TrEMBL record:
Catalyzes the 2'-O methylation of guanosine at position 18 in tRNA. It comes from the Bacteria. InterPro entries: Alpha/beta_knot_MTases, SpoU_MeTrfase, TrmH, tRNA_m1G_MTases_N. Residues 33-171 form the tRNA/rRNA methyltransferase SpoU type domain. One of its GO terms (molecular function) is tRNA (guanine(18)-2'-O)-methyltransferase activity. It comes from Flavobacterium shii. This is tRNA (guanosine(18)-2'-O)-methyltransferase. The keyword Transferase applies. The keyword tRNA processing applies. It catalyses: guanosine(18) in tRNA + S-adenosyl-L-methionine = 2'-O-methylguanosine(18) in tRNA + S-adenosyl-L-homocysteine + H(+). S-adenosyl-L-methionine binds at residues 109, 152, 161.
Amino acid sequence: MINIDYLNFLENILTENRKSKFLKVLENRTKHFTIVVEDIFQMHNTSAVMRSCEVFGIQELNVIEQRYGKSIDKEIAMGAQKWVDINTFDSITNCVDTLKNKGYQIIATTPHENDCLLEDFDITKPSALFFGTERDGLSEEILQRADGFLKIPMVGFTESLNISVSAAIIIQNLTNRLRNTDIEWQLSNDEIMEKRLAWAKSSIKDIKRIEARYFEENPR
């Protein structure tokens, strides 16, 4: 349960423009779709995918680090890591099971001929969109456990796109379509309050000192 008094205290430190921006951005945030990247060796690709999630309103990015333990490239992400929630998993099985338990269908993005084209994809169901590397694609375990497959239509000689480019195209297309429907895609009121608190805290310098002072003056 969010401490409303504490939230108000922190937001009073922010400028009106900052608070207004938070609310406007949160109006367009969604967890109806979530993005998953699997064992991306070049971390700048994951950072770029996170940036696309932030720009187009996807609140959660899931990273499977079964083979490579690397950190987000903050220079490429350009601050997006402050606004997007990153969930990390040490195995494919753990990631897929967690997302299925949350009600997501597992969608593997692949360039295979019989996959569903982007414009034909059913956006009504909450979906976890999995991306693999350009060279190796997704692992066999994900392909076996997928509920569906999705591809970007291409008409050139090249058969695949860089993961960050593919993700940007797909995320922009699906979120734009989603916002033009009557599907309940927005964050819940509780989720919005949680993000307001988290974003306020991340925006205030010396937050630990300010937080300590507040709770000293307002014991629970």
